[in-house]
Amino acid sequence: MQEDHYKDLYQKIIPKTCVFEKSILQRFANCQAANKHLLAEREAINCNSHNCHNQCLSLHKELRSRARFTLNQTSAEEPLPHNKELKLQVGGLIGLKLLLSGADPATIKSQLDFQKRYECQQQAIDDIATLLASAIEKYSAVDKLPYQELIRAINLSQIRKQRRRPKSV
Question: If we measure between CA atoms, which residue out of 127, 93, 120, 121 comes closest to residue 108?
Answer without folding.
Answer: 93
